[in-house]
């Protein structure tokens, strides 16, 4: 019984941590999976088309290790709105669904779908993902092949 309680505590801790990071898990199906007899647990997240991924501890800890770049974008989106709007107007190209931006960040919501990468949270992506790339620095950081900027404004 105690292990089950600890499993649910773990689930909700991870669940709300990811929501605080901007992922709108409350809009998709997410549920805990408790391994029988073990304290470890993980979250399963599913989308409308029935695809399901397991978000385990190593996945979200890997995600937190790459928050430096996400924090930079989040700061710009929150406090430098004019800069972000100018940059989005200067942004050229489109997403090629190569997955480099998410794969290099070790995003646990990225799944392989035939010949391209897809986000299981695509309809509910956080602003950090929606506004990617904000500027040429983002493009260079992740090696994005779909976007470029004609001019970089300060």
Could you provide a short overview of the structure?
By secondary structure, this protein is of the alpha+beta class.
Features:
three-stranded antiparallel sheet; 19% strand; elongated
| Overall number of structural domains | 2
Output the radius of gyration: 17 Å
Distance between the termini: 57 Å
Gross geometry: elongated
- Write down the secondary-structure element order: HEEEHHHEHEEHHE
What's the story with the biggest beta sheet?
A: 3 strands, antiparallel
Strand order of the largest sheet: 1-2-3
Give the number of DSSP strands.
Answer: 7
Q: Note the total helix count.
A: 7
Estimate percent helicity: 40-55%
Please mark out the parts with pLDDT under 50 across 5 or more consecutive residues, or reply none: none
Fold and architecture overview:
β5 and β6 (116-119) form a beta hairpin. The chain has 2 domains: 2-56, no CATH class; 67-149, no CATH class. It is 42% helix and 19% strand. The chain starts with a helix and ends in a 5-residue tail after the last strand. The chain is of the alpha+beta class and 154 residues long. The strands form 3 sheets. A 3-stranded antiparallel β-sheet has the order 1-2-3. The radius of gyration is 17 Å and the shape is elongated. It contains 7 helices and 7 strands; from the N terminus they run αβββαααβαββααβ.
